[in-house]
Write a structure and sequence with these properties.
By secondary structure, the chain is mainly alpha-helical. It has 4 domains: 36 residues; 183 residues, no CATH class; 98 residues, no CATH class; 53 residues. Helix content is 54%, strand content 3%. The chain has a two-stranded antiparallel sheet with strand order 1-2. The protein is globular, with a radius of gyration of 24 Å.
Length: 492
């Protein structure tokens, strides 16, 4: 959407009014609406008996279609759209930034975060994750932020992690989500939040009797890089732990920052995965470990398998895993290149409607498809909590499950959420239903069929059409709630 100079000026004036009144959410909503968060006059629904290929593409590479997204993709093509998304800094995201600028703790240094209550930090962290996923135009970045946050999971409620996770999200996950994999792992390894969560700050060798703490070394190999069957041994775990001795987190001056203490480091020779790391390496031992494990063939296969499972199928096709792993190895773990190979594959194109949405994806896709205006207050968070996927709340290092079966028990909560969303009983959440119904052509006259196509990407079956026909034309809220509750919307 292009704005006239007059519209931009009006928005700027409104923004000036909002600045001293951060709590005035209705003013913020008005500005973001003028910046593009509104339902277009006409929204295309592309009917067919099978899921539209472009709809499928957006369903996997975003948290769901915002009104008009599918029309835009069809106008520029998948490759052009993907190239834009792979370079998110080129995408104007002012509307989302305005909506999320209230979460000031996410931009503070760790020492300052210690001045806040844990509950305030947790609230900012979770609400920011939900709102950026919902409103950011940099959707592929948000999808990858979610993926890497699970891959490098940190439970925010352990010890001091809540004071440090905001910085980890900013400096580790978001900074490297579309960059080089080895840079992501190197940043994570020395992240204060990770050093606390997996006890890396306790890993020391200051005297001969000290036994290095192996917690992080084990997860680095088993979860973050090579995979549980990657070919490493217990000896490799022990050697990696020795390489990583000496990394600490400050508890006074510059509190919450990480640093390397040579006096706590094992300076003797090590051997990791058959490669010798010379003595007296100091802090560079970490860089050598990262280089070794990230270049190992098992790492390429492990990351390729996880990406294919996430974006294509719970049982990753071996042919695609091999292709993606080869791209990973050939590009030194360039995430942009790896994603391009995956999204342009035949296996990806053939996988429409075969995955079950996790709770977070279901909630966000519901909000996006209905162009909801929300600020993710406590009532919204309670639904995600009851579904079991509140961001940064998974206790174990493996992250939330990336397959459908563990989430099948959340269906009742999903239905409750869909009907609450449409009947307006989620406080401070509004849906422009009248505009949406007007934008989708022929909705009322066709018994909801075009609306179903808008939400699902295909025509309804005879059974689905029969169910839609039972909803009175005067109750579009029930019609949309029924579609969001349908088995078809749970899949993508």
């Amino acid at each position: 959407m292009k704005l006239s100079r007059r519209s931009l000026l009006q928005s700027a004036l409104l923004l000036g009014a909002v600045s001293p009144l951060v709590g005035c959410e209705h003013l913020s909503s008005e500005v973001t609406r003028r910046l593009g968060e509104e339902v277009p006059e006409k929204v295309g629904a592309y009917p067919g008996d099978s899921i539209d290929p472009d709809f499928h593409f957006l369903s996997r590479t975003t948290y769901g279609c915002w009104p008009g997204d599918l029309d835009y993709l069809k106008s520029v093509g998948q490759q052009h759209w993907l190239e834009e998304q792979l370079h998110p800094d080129t995408i104007d995201d002012k509307a989302c930034m305005l909506r999320t600028r209230r979460f000031e703790t996410l931009n503070l240094d760790a020492g300052t975060c210690y001045e806040f209550k844990k509950t305030a930090l947790q609230d900012d962290l979770v609400r920011h994750a939900i709102l950026t996923a919902t409103y950011s135009k940099r959707q592929l970045l948000e999808i990858m932020v979610g993926f890497w946050s699970d891959h490098l999971n940190i439970y925010s409620q352990k010890a001091d992690c809540i004071y440090l996770k905001g910085i980890d999200d900013r400096a580790v996950i978001r900074s490297h989500a579309l960059g080089k994999f080895k840079d992501l792992i190197r940043a994570s390894a020395s992240s204060p939040a990770m050093l606390v969560y997996l006890d890396g700050k306790e890993n020391k060798k200051s005297k001969p009797s000290d036994v290095p703490n192996e917690n992080y070394a084990r997860e680095l190999l088993e979860l973050h890089t090579m995979g549980v069957h990657g070919g490493y041994s217990q000896h490799d775990v022990s050697e990696v732990a020795r390489c990583l001795t000496g990394w600490r987190v400050r508890d006074r001056w510059r509190r919450g920052s990480s640093y390397f203490d040579l006096s706590m480091h094992d300076q003797s020779r090590k051997k990791v995965l058959g490669q010798t790391i010379a003595a007296l390496g100091g802090s560079t031992d970490l860089d050598k470990v990262v280089e070794i494990v990230c270049k190992h063939p098992s790492t390429a296969t492990h990351i390729a398998t996880k990406l294919v499972r996430h974006f294509v199928a719970e049982q990753p096709p071996a042919s695609l895993v091999k292709q993606v792993a080869a791209t990973f190895a050939a590009t030194d773990g360039d995430i942009r290149s790896v994603l391009t190979a995956l999204f342009m594959s035949d296996e990806f194109r053939a996988s429409a409607g075969q995955k079950i949405k996790r709770p977070m994806h279901f909630v966000i896709s519901s909000l996006r498809a209905t162009a909801s205006d929300t600020y993710a207050h406590k009532p919204m968070l309670e639904y995600l909590s009851c579904m079991g996927e509140l961001p940064y709340q998974h206790p174990t290092p493996d992250g939330y499950p990336d397959v459908g079966r563990p989430w099948l028990g959340t269906l009742l909560w999903r239905w409750n959420f869909a009907f609450a969303l449409l009947n307006g009983t989620i406080p401070q959440t509004h849906i422009p239903l009248e505009q949406l119904m007007s934008a989708v052509p022929g909705t009322v006259a066709s018994g909801g069929s075009p609306l179903f196509s808008y939400f699902i990407g295909r025509n309804p079956t005879s059974t689905e059409l029969f169910a839609l026909s039972k909803i009175p034309a005067a109750r579009p809220d029930l019609l949309v709630a029924l579609i969001l509750s349908s088995p078809a919307f749970q899949r993508y």
